Amino acid sequence: MKYDGKFASRWRAKSPDALCAVLPKIDLIEGHRVSVICNDGRVYEGFGAVPCIVEDENGEETDAVRLDLDNGHFVILTESEIKSYKILDTAFTDDT
Predict the structure, then answer these.
(1) Residue 90: CB partners within 8 Å, gap ≥ 6?
(2) Is the overall model pTM greater than 0.85, yes or no?
(3) 79: left (phi over 0), alpha (psi -120 to 50) or beta
């Protein structure tokens, strides 16, 4: 299955105990309502649902995230496709 230029037939959830030196954008997006601007100008708004690993056009595994869009569809974005993002949900504050 090819989806949006990426081969998604082998995507799987990333290990939650995987370590990296710098948190990738996709890990920061996970679990938040976000607005994402891609390098090619595409703009998406939705919920960063599932970090995953997909195959790129060269058959190499790369980090990605499934973004559940407000219209009920989803898009899979690789780390390299994301130019910038903005977290839209409000931060938790404890008023006690």
Answers:
(1) none
(2) no
(3) alpha
Beta-carbon-side half-sphere exposure of residue 78 (alpha carbons within 13 Å): 20
pLDDT tens-place string over residues 8-57:
444 455 555 554 445 678 788 888 999 999 999 999 999 988 888 888 77
- Which residues, in sequence order, are bridge partners of residue 67? 48, 75
Strand residue runs (E) in the chain = 2-3, 6-13, 33-38, 43-55, 61-69, 74-78, 82-87
Which residue, chain included where needed, has tokens 């290990």?
15
Owner of token pair 């995230």: 65
